[in-house]
Amino acid sequence: MVGVVLSAIDITAADLLSKIGLTPESLWQHIQTGVAWAIPNIILGSLIVVPVWIVIYLFRPPRA
Question: Per-residue pLDDT for 6 more than 80?
Answer without folding.
Answer: yes
